[in-house]
Write a structure and sequence with these properties.
With 225 residues, the chain is of the alpha+beta class. It contains 7 helices and 5 strands; from the N terminus they run H-H-H-H-H-E-E-E-E-E-H-H. A 5-stranded antiparallel β-sheet has the order 1-2-3-4-5.
Length: 225
């Protein structure tokens, strides 16, 4: 009789713990699968690039707009911009932050997004994923391979969970981080020449890319207007 009473008391005392761990497990289960969000993103990009009605230079603007529209749904350009600037970001006004986001997004559009328009039936294989953390910020890494004939290029997407959507804030190609690469370059420019010089150099770089490649020209002064 005593042992039953004692067992009942212990059970009541432990009930909150059972509930706590149960809720924690449910929270983990509630985290959406990052790979399952990346697959349709990649598929949508490929559909645009292989659309017969969007081929040729005369379709450049339309094709690029469609690619960028999809890219902005999954790639977190504001978060990338914040990370590449480091401490300098906190010193900027809201207007300056928005200007930098627009400019850096345009740079990435020309330097990286434009390159994927050379897509020629390469195969994308999703390898594995890692999820870190159960509370904000929850982060993940999805590892893929781009198979081009006999060559394989490793591409990892580094993401943060915002609401129920995984947002990419860094892309690592063959162990080279896009964000870290730009961060180191910008840090040196800021140290030597200051923020105004960085903005001027970015504007010059965009103009150079427009002039020396067959990419779609972009007027950075009208972006976001």
């Amino acid at each position: 009789m005593y042992s039953r009473k004692f067992a009942g008391i212990i059970f009541l005392l432990l009930m909150p713990l059972f509930t706590l761990f149960s809720s924690s497990a449910e929270a983990v289960k509630a985290i959406p699968d990052p790979t399952e969000q990346m697959r349709p993103f990649v598929d949508r990009i490929v559909v645009i690039l292989t659309d017969p009605d969007l081929q040729g230079f005369e379709k450049c603007f339309e094709r690029r707009q469609k690619v960028m529209k999809v890219a902005q749904e999954r790639l977190d350009f504001p978060e990338m911009s914040k990370r590449v600037l480091g401490k300098q970001w906190r010193k900027l006004s809201q207007e300056e932050k928005q200007l930098f986001i627009d400019l850096f997004t345009t740079l990435l559009e020309h330097a990286y997004i434009g390159k994927i328009e050379d897509y020629s039936n390469q195969k994308v294989e999703f390898m594995d994923q890692r999820i870190k953390g159960e509370r904000d910020p929850v982060k993940a890494q999805v590892n893929t391979l781009i198979i081009d004939k006999e060559k394989a290029i490793s591409v990892s997407y580094i993401m943060v969970l915002k609401g129920q959507d995984w947002k990419v804030y860094d892309i690592v190609v063959e162990n080279v981080s896009l964000v870290r690469n730009y961060m180191e370059q910008f840090k040196e420019i800021l140290r030597k020449d200051g923020y105004a010089s960085l903005i001027q150099q970015l504007e010059d770089k965009v103009k150079e890319l427009e002039a020396t490649t067959k990419l779609c020209p972009t007027d950075i002064t009208t972006r976001g207007s």
